[in-house]
Amino acid sequence: MRSIILRSQLKAGLFINGLNNLVKCSNYKLRRNQSSTHGPLSILSEDEQFFKETVSKFSQEQITPLIKKMDHEHKIDDELVKKLFENGFMGIEIDQEYGGSGSSFMSSTLTVEEIAKVDPSVSVLVDLQNTLGNNVMIKMGNKEQKEKYLPRLAQNTVSSFCLSEPSSGSDAFALKTTAKKDGDHYYINGTKMWISNSDIAGIFYVFANVDISKGHKGVTCFIVERDQEGFSVAKKEDKLGMKASGTCVLHFDNVKVHKDNIIGKIGEGYKIAINFLNEGRIGIGAQMVGIAQGCLDHTIPYTLERKQFGSSIFDFQSMQHQIARAVTEVETARLMVYNTARLVEADLPFIKEAAMAKYYASEVAGKVTSVCIDWMGGVGFTTDYPQEKFYRDCKVGPIYEGTTNMQLTTIAKFIKKEYEK
C-alpha cells in the first residue's frame, strides 16, 4: 500500500493531522487557501506538508543506512529504487488513474529538497524522473502513449532524458544524432553523453535530428526502450560527486523506432527540451537547497558540542556571524525556489526566475558546504563525516541542466527586455 495519501483522500478529510470531520477540514482549507494566496511562501498545504514529512521520514530510515555503500559502489540500491516507486515518490504528478500520486509540482520540489538533505545522488533520480521524464509524457504524450507509459513510469520504470552529446553541451542543439525515415519507422544513429539515470532506466527520451538541413528545427523527440536492438548503454562515468547516480554514454546503431513513438510533433524536439529543462532547473535549485541545508544540519550541532578555550565553537561571535550568514543565504535560495515552483503551478512566466533560482542555489550550496568543512576543522576533511560528500555532490550544480554562465545569460536577456520597454 502506498504511504502517500492522495489528494482525493485529502479532500475527503482523511489526512492524519487531527482534522476529525469535514467541517473542521473545510475551515482549515479556507484558512490555508487564504494563506497560499496572500501569505508566506513557506506556508504549505496539508498535501505538501504531508509529502515533506513523509519523504523526510523515509529518507532518514531507508536512505541513510545505504549512503556510504551506494557512494562506494557507484550505484543506487535496487531495493531502494523499488521502495521509491512503492511510496509514490517516482510518480508524484502522474494522475491516480495511471497509478501515480496525483499531487503537484510543488510536492515534487519539496520531495527533491528533502531527499537531497540526506543523499543528493538519490535526489537526482527522483528529480529527473518527476520534473523531466514524467512531465514530458504528461504534457506532451498523446492518449495512447500516456496509457502505455505512464503506469510504468509511476510504478516500476525509470526514465532518462537524452539530449547532450560529446560535441553538444551548452549548445544543446548542435547535436549530431540523426533519425532517418523509412516508411513508418525511423532509424536512429549517434551517441549521447552525460545521460543521468541511464544505468537503470527502461524508457529513454532521445532527441535526434530528422532533417539536418533544418538545423534545430529538425530535432525530434523519440521514445526508445532499453531492450531495442542497436541501442546500448556504455560504462558509467567515474565522477567527483553524485557517484551513486549513474551517468553513462549511450550508443544508437540503426535503432528502429516506430513513428508512433514520436513525442509531440516532428521538429518540435527543441521546444520540448527547452520548456522542460526550464522546469527541471527548479528541481536542481531544490536539490542544491537540500544539499546546503543537509550539510548545515550535520554541522551546526557539532559547533554547539565542540569546545575550545572553555566555550562551544558556536558561542564565538565570529562563528555566529558566519553561521547566521550561511543560514540566511540558504533560506533566500529556498524562497527563490519555492516562488518559482508557485509560478509554474499558477501557469505564470517563470523562465527568468528558474534561471535565478538554479544559479543562486548552486552558488549557495558550494559556499555553504565549503564553510561547513572549515567549521568542522580537521575531521571535516575526512570521509568519516558527511560534509565532504555534500561538498563533492554540489559541485555539479553550476554545470548540469544549464551552466551558471548560461543561466546568467538568460537572466540578462530578460533584464534587457524589461528595461527596453
TrEMBL record:
What's the catalysed reaction?
hexanoyl-CoA + oxidized [electron-transfer flavoprotein] + H(+) = (2E)-hexenoyl-CoA + reduced [electron-transfer flavoprotein]; 2-methylbutanoyl-CoA + oxidized [electron-transfer flavoprotein] + H(+) = (2E)-2-methylbut-2-enoyl-CoA + reduced [electron-transfer flavoprotein]; valproyl-CoA + oxidized [electron-transfer flavoprotein] + H(+) = (2E)-2-propylpent-2-enoyl-CoA + reduced [electron-transfer flavoprotein]; (2S)-2-methylbutanoyl-CoA + oxidized [electron-transfer flavoprotein] + H(+) = (2E)-2-methylbut-2-enoyl-CoA + reduced [electron-transfer flavoprotein]
- State its cofactor: FAD
Q: Name one GO biological process term.
A: carboxylic acid catabolic process
What EC number(s) are associated with this protein in UniProt?
1.3.8.5
State which pathway it belongs to.
Answer: Amino-acid degradation; L-isoleucine degradation; Lipid metabolism; mitochondrial fatty acid beta-oxidation
Residue ranges of the Acyl-CoA oxidase/dehydrogenase middle domain?
160-255
Domain Acyl-CoA dehydrogenase/oxidase N-terminal: start-end pairs: 45-155
Q: What is its main location?
A: mitochondrion
Q: Which domain of life is it from?
A: Eukaryota
Q: How does it assemble?
A: Homotetramer.
Designated name of the protein: Short/branched chain specific acyl-CoA dehydrogenase, mitochondrial
Q: Which organism is it from?
A: Sipha flava (yellow sugarcane aphid)
Q: Which gene encodes it?
A: LOC112687897
